[in-house]
């Protein structure tokens, strides 16, 4: 199991993962991958991969986003999930988003991959010089909270998140 840069090598299992996101219950949070076109990915996966990689240079991102480096967790040659390391904090990231975001594909959840993706993501953040990591989760996201605590997260505070109506739990992780 390892983190790799987005690569065309994982096309088939990545597309399977997108199908899993699309069939998730409507009550699940809307994830960007759910909106990807299977047809588009089948036709030109290389452009998709290039776009994902270009975010590390701050390209092809929403207004106000800082450069973020994306890695894919792969196991046995298959796409399992992704982690994004934001290269610096904005006020919004400090309050709500944090340095690191992660997601395990629906079909692979509950198998320990979440704990592993954050551990490996923290190593990448260390290599990128991020010695103190801000990390957050919704207060009702039980698995994510366990993952953060298992990886050394110390609760700082919980604040209302007007964007969702669900409070955010905010942690720091010493990452030297
Ligand atoms: C949160 C997420 C990454 C967890 O991934 P995962 O691979 O299922 O996590 P793990 O299997 O490593 O489980 C982590 C812990 O949560 C527990 N857990 C897993 N699913 C659970 C559930 N539905 N309810 C309660 N606890 C759960 C596990 O037992 C484990 O605890 P332990 O280490 O004490 O045994 C995954 O659910 C996901 O991608 N969710 C959508 C995106 C998201 O919420 N990302 C985090 C944003 S902050």
Structure in a nutshell:
By secondary structure, the protein is of the alpha+beta class. The protein has helices at 11-22, 38-43, 45-54, 91-97, 113-127, 142-150; strands at residues 2-4, 68-75, 78-86, 100-104, 132-138, 154-159, 168-174.
Question: How would you describe this structure to a colleague?
Answer:
With 176 residues, the chain is of the alpha+beta class. The protein has one domain: Aminopeptidase (3-Layer(aba) Sandwich), CATH 3.40.630.30. 34% of the residues lie in helices and 26% in strands. The strands form two sheets. A four-stranded antiparallel β-sheet has the order 1-2-3-4, sandwiched between helices. A hairpin with an 8-residue loop joins strand 6 and strand 7. The radius of gyration is 16 Å and the shape is globular. The relative contact order is 0.14. The model has no long low-confidence stretch (mean pLDDT 95). Coenzyme A binds next to strand 4, helix 5 and helix 6. Coenzyme A (COA) binds next to strand 4, helix 5 and helix 6.
């Amino acid at each position: 199991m390892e983190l790799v840069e987005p690569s065309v090598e994982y096309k088939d299992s990545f597309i399977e993962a997108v199908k899993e996101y699309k069939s998730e219950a409507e009550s699940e949070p809307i994830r960007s991958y759910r909106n990807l076109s299977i047809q588009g990915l089948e036709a030109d996966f290389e452009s998709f991969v290039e776009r994902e990689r270009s975010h590390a240079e701050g390209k092809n991102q929403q207004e106000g986003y800082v450069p973020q480096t994306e890695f894919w967790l792969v196991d046995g040659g298959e796409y399992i999930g992704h982690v994004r390391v934001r290269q610096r904090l904005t006020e919004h990231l400090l309050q709500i988003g944090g340095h690191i975001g992660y997601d395990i594909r629906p079909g692979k959840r509950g198998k320990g991959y979440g704990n592993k993706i954050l551990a490996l993501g923290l190593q990448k953040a260390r290599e990128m010089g991020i010695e103190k990591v801000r990390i957050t989760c919704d207060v009702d996201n039980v698995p994510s909270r366990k993952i953060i605590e298992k990886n050394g997260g110390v609760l700082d505070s919980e604040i209302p998140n007007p964007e969702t109506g669900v409070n955010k739990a905010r942690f720091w992780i010493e990452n030297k």
